[in-house]
């Protein structure tokens, strides 16, 4: 699961996503290839998991005819903020709704996924497949 088991508080304030580029997490640290966000926004835990599964599926398809040397993927974002929602047809007031899901705040230029152990073409194809899952625009980066 890509969200924490427990947090200090059950409900947090929404906050704002920083428009600027924060220096932390903008460089590749683990793998040779990566996916970088092009703008600030929010990613749901479902979108992160869907992108991770799409990448792994691409690795398995690419490595099916070869020896079992699969690629490795690192997820660099964690959905750590609970999102609340009120049920439909509930009147105004009576407090904040119950937690319904988790999101991750993503700043511009932040590395979302890193991968290694596959060829450049396979990594690029996996990044393209994974880019369709989150709602924000991403780009493929390579370690140099």
Automatic annotation (TrEMBL):
It is found in: Mitochondrion; Plastid, Chloroplast. It comes from the Eukaryota. GO terms for biological process: mitochondrial translation. GO terms for cellular component: chloroplast; mitochondrial large ribosomal subunit. Keywords: Chloroplast, Mitochondrion, Plastid, Ribonucleoprotein, Ribosomal protein. Transmembrane segments: none annotated. This is Large ribosomal subunit protein uL16m. Belongs to the universal ribosomal protein uL16 family. The keyword Chloroplast applies. Its main location: mitochondrion. It holds the Pfam family Ribosomal_L16. InterPro entries: Ribosomal_uL16, Ribosomal_uL16_bact-type, Ribosomal_uL16_CS, Ribosomal_uL16_dom, Ribosomal_uL16_sf. One of its GO terms (molecular function) is structural constituent of ribosome.
